[in-house]
Amino acid sequence: MKYKNNVRKIYMLLVVIAMLLSTILFVVPNSRADEVSTNLGTQAENYADEIMKVHLKEVKKAQEGKKIFETILKDSGIKAKYGSEEYWEKLIELADPAGELRKQDPEKWEKIYEYAYEYSLEYGKKTTKDKQEDKDGSIGTKSTTPFPGVGGGAYNRNGAVNYAYTYVYNYNKAYHKFSADCTNFISQCLKEGGGIPMVDEWWNAYWDSDDWYYYRKGSDDYDSNNDDSWSWSWVKVESLYEHLTNRGIGQVVPSVNNLEIGDIVQMDFGGDSVYDHSMIVTKVERTATKTEIYLTYHTLDTKDKSLSEIKKVYPSAKYRYIHIIY
After folding, report:
1. Exposed e or buried b per residue across 130-141, where buried means at least 16 C-beta atoms within 10 angstroms of its C-beta
2. Are 250 and 240 in contact (CB under 8 A)?
3. Selection from 227, 326, 316, 244 nearest residue 278 by Cα
4. Domain residues of the chain, as ranges?
5. Are 164 and 189 in contact (CB under 8 A)?
6. DSSP strand E in the chain: where?
7. Cβ distance 240 to 186 under 8 Å?
8. With bands split at pLDDT 50, 70 and 90, how would you rate the model's confidence at 152?
9. What angle is formed at CA 124 by the lines to CA 118 and CA 125, rounded to 5 degrees?
10. Is 265 exposed, middle or buried (0-12, 13-18, 19+ CB in 10 A)?
11. Lower CB count within 10 Å: N or C terminus of the chain?
12. Which residue, 244, 246, 257, is CA-closest to 322?
């Protein structure tokens, strides 16, 4: 009897070990959204500014989007491994603003859309085409061709500022109104006010930062029919940065001393070197010893707030200065 009890104990121990190993081997890794949520949650408690709380909500949407997406995979019988090309391709298919899911279930689409962007920041936007190019250099994936007029002063700085002032509180009804609308607003300023042309090369996907576009379908206000389409670079902070710098439209400069009205400032709240917020310079004051810039932005709709004030609210944030050279 004692022998049988010992055998049973050993058997149960092996079962427990097997279960633990299964958990370790098959658990899905935490996404960047999980880590950022923790960091931003701490900051949101420390700072009263509502913009941090809005950004935290967007991160939580991404977390929920991950769960929804992986449930869809499971229910569809798709065994795509987290981090695999198949996983990414299915994710960007469902997250497409011009896809069917947004029309069928806008709330579910929005969460998957946010997750797709967060996922791309962690794993990169590798496709079969990218891998082929990496292997033999035969296929180019990013354009560095500048626009005509780059460096020639074609950018209408006053026009971009006037547009910002016109629509900082009263959103342009011709565009989708995002809960985190900062980069959508900046793109509008650059195009509608500044005169920078859109880019839509047919071979690029909407997530490719080489493109930069927004297309309105119909005349419904704020895209209420959920049928407009846009590129990530139009609405996402890092993608806009990639587009401007890769295309030679903008360049990163070391300080505010190099900025003019119509230039862009981006913020990294979480300190992870992934930038989260875009603002446009709408006023510059220079003295012999100091340059003070004033910023206008959406999400927490704000006009002419000094960078000095913003830095007091977010002392640990990082700032990126983009000078438009178009």
Report:
1. eeeeeeeeeeeb
2. no
3. 244
4. 31-136, 157-324
5. yes
6. 214-215, 229-230, 250-253, 264-268, 277-286, 291-297, 302-306, 318-324
7. yes
8. low
9. 100
10. buried
11. N
12. 244
DSSP string, 17-78: HHHHHHHHHHPPPPPHHHHHHHHHHHHHHH---HHHHHHHHHHHHHHHHHHHHHHHHHHHT-
Structure tokens at 25: 């081997």
Give residues with Cβ within 8 angstroms of 22, minimum separation 6: none
Q: Phi and psi dihedrals of 266, rounded to 5? A: -120, 150
Amino acid at 246: N
End-to-end alpha-carbon separation of the chain, Å?
A: 86
In sequence order, the 6+-apart residues with CB closer than 8 A to the CB of 290 are: none
Per the DSSP assignment, residues forming a β-bridge with 303 are none
315 token code pair = 């002392």
Would the pLDDT of 26 be above 80?
no
Whether residue 207 has pLDDT greater than 80: yes
Length of the chain: 326
The strand pair at 250-253 and 264-268 is best described as unpaired
Write down the pLDDT at residue 124: 62
Cα distances from 117 to residues 5, 154, 156, 239, in angstroms, run: 54, 32, 31, 10
Cα 164 to Cα 316: distance, rounded to the nearest angstrom: 27
| Rounded Cα–Cα distance for residues 280 and 266 (Å) | 9
Q: Please, what is the angle between helix 85-95 and helix 106-123, to 10°? A: 140
Q: How far is CA 140 from CA 78, 131, 137, 245, 258, in A?
A: 31, 11, 7, 17, 33
What confidence tens digit (pLDDT) does each residue in 93-150 have? 999 999 999 999 999 999 999 999 999 988 765 433 343 333 333 223 344 444 444 4
Higher pLDDT, 90 or 142: 90
